[in-house]
Amino acid sequence: MSRRAVVVGAGLAGMLAAAVLARAGVEVVVVDRDELPDGPRPRRGLPQGRHAHLLMAGGLSAMEETVPGARLRAALLAAGAHEVSLSSGMLALTPEGWLRRWRREGPTMLTCTRALLDWTVRAAVLGHTRVEVRRAAVVALAGSPERVRGVRVSGPDGEAVLDADLVVDASGRGTRIVPWLDGLGLSGVRTRTVDSGLVNASRLYRVPAGAERFPLTVVHADPYVSRPGRSAMVMPVEGGRWLVSCGGTRGGEPPADPDGFLRYTLDLPDPIVGRLVSGAEPLTDVRLSRSTSNVRHYVDKARKWPEGLVVLGDALGTFNPAYGQGMSVAAFGARVLARELERAGGPDAPGLARRVLRGAARPVDAAWSVAVGQDVLYPGVRGGRPGVADRAVTAYTRRMTRAATGSFAAASALWDVTSMRTPPTRVFHPAAVLAALTGPPLPLLTGPPLTPAEREVLTGLDRTGV
C-alpha cells in the first residue's frame, strides 16, 4: 500500500507542504473547509487576504525550491505582480527619517494581491504534482499519544477517518492544534499571544495615468514615541491597481469610512500617501481586519510528541502582518520538511516529525523576535512588556536605522534582514556594527527622495491642498 499524507489547510503553507510530499513519492490529500476559488479571488478563510502582502526575496527563493519547474517568479510577474527593489524602488519614511534610494543593486520583493499569490502557488502545485484537494472540516486527530494515524473529518456525508502515515497541520491562524492534542491525551503545550491591537484598513484604487512607475510608498509606524503606531502604504498590484493599506495599533485604529480613511493617511508624519490617493479613483470600499496578533504555539518544545504529526506555517506561529514575514516563514518550513524527508527516506520514518518541528521553529522564532520586539513597545499591548534585552535591541535597531538613512552599508544590512535572505543577526556583522556606530555620513533628507518626474506626478495627483 502506498504511503499517504494528509495536509490540513489549502493555503500557502499547506500547498507548499503538499508539493514537497508529492515530490517525495507520497500520496497527498489536502483537506480544507473552504470552497476554494477557481481564480485569483479572496477566500473566506484568510482574514488578512484583502490587505497588503509583500513576498520577500528569501521567501520566493524557498518557494521556487519547493515547487521546482513551476517558475513561480515568472508566473507571478506574467500575471501582473511587480518586482520592487528595496534599494531603489521604494519611498520609505522610517521613525528615524527617510531612507535614500541608491543606484546599486539590492534585494527585491514581489507585490501583488494575496489572492493572486495563493492562486498562482496552488495552480503550480496542482499542475506539477499529483495532489488531491478535498473540501471537509477536520474535527480531530486519529491515533494515540505515540502516533497520529490520520484525521477525523466532517463533510456532507457525516464524519469519517482519513488514514495517513503523516499529518501536516497547515491550517493557519485558526489552527485547533492544542485541543486536537488534548483529544489524544497530550496536554501542556504552551501558547503565547502578544497583541498590539493592530487594525488594518485597505482599499484598492486604479493607478492614475502617468503614475504607473511611481515607487512603492510607505510611512512606517513609530514605536518609540509612547503613542499608538500608525502607518500607511501604497503598493502596486496586478490589474493596474494600487493597494492602499493603513495600520493602527490600539488607540490609533484607522476608520472604515472613505473620508476618514483619507484623513488618516494625511495625518501621518508625512501626508504623501494621502496626497497620492486623493487623485486616484477608488475601486472598492475600505476593508478592515483585526486578526493581527502574534501567536506562538510551542509544540516544538513539548516534552512528548507523537510520530506522524507536523505543524507548519501560521499553525506554528503567526506574526503581526505589518512586518511582512508570514509567507516567507511558511516557505522556510516547507523547505525544512523537504530536507528532512530526503534524509529520512519517507513520511513514516521514526523521529521525522520532531526533527521537522524543531527545524521549522527556527525561522518562526527569528520572525517572532522581530515582530514582538517592536510590538511590545506600543501602548496598550497585551501579552508582553519590553525587558532589558528588548530595550538594548531597540536602542541598537534605532541607531542602525538612523545610520541607514545615509549609509549604504547600514542600509544593506537592513535590506538583507527585511528581505529574509539572512537572519536578524546580519545587523551585528562587523561592517554593519561599524556603520551603526559611526552614523550616517550623509545628512538626513528633509523630504521623500523623489525624482523630478515623480514629484510632478505627486503634484498633479494632489487634491488635498496640504
From TrEMBL:
GO MF, any single term: monooxygenase activity
InterPro entries per record: FAD-bd (IPR002938), FAD/NAD-bd_sf (IPR036188)
Keywords: Monooxygenase, Oxidoreductase, Signal
Record keyword Signal present: yes
Domain of life: Bacteria
Residues in the signal sequence: 1-24
Protein name: FAD-dependent monooxygenase
Organism in which the protein naturally occurs: Streptomyces lienomycini
